[in-house]
Prior knowledge:
The chain is of the alpha+beta class. Helices cover 45% and strands 18% of the residues. The longest helix is centred in the C-terminal third of the chain and has 16 residues, at 137-152. The radius of gyration is 16 Å and the shape is elongated.
Amino acid sequence: MKLPRHNAIREVLSGSPVTNQDDLRRKLRRRGFAVTQATLSRDIHELRLFKGPGGYSLPSTNGHSASPEAENDDPPSVAEVMAGFGLRVRQAMNQVVVGTVMGGAQPFAAALDHEGWPEVLGTVAGDDTVLVICPDPRRAGAVEARLRTILES
C-alpha cells in the first residue's frame, strides 16, 4: 500500500500547491488513502519532500531537490532553517523551546538532529514548536544563546 500512496502523494504535489500536512492528508483521502499524521510524516521523510514558504515540493528527478540550496542529500543547516522558519527561542531548565512558522518545526528538528550538536540529546517536533532536550541547564543556556544568535543574524 505504501508505493501506491507515495505515487498519489507525488501526483498531488505535482498538480497543486500543498501548504501543510493536513491539506495533503485531505487530498489523499479524496484519492482513497486514509492516513494518520504519523504515516504522512514518514512518507514525507521517505520521499524527501521539502517544505518552503509555498508549501511542499518534490525532489527533482535526478534525486536532488528542485531548490538550488539543497545540492545533496543532507538536510538544510540549522542556520538555513532558522532563517526561513524560526520565530523565537526560549530556555526552560534543561530544555530549549524553539517556535517556528506553521510546518517549520519538523524541518528545524531534522536539521538540528543532523548537525549533531554535542550539547543536544534530542529533539521533539510538533507543527510549529520544537523541544530541544539538553543534559543540563548550563548546556541548554548555551544552545539557547547559539540559536538566538542565529535567529537574530
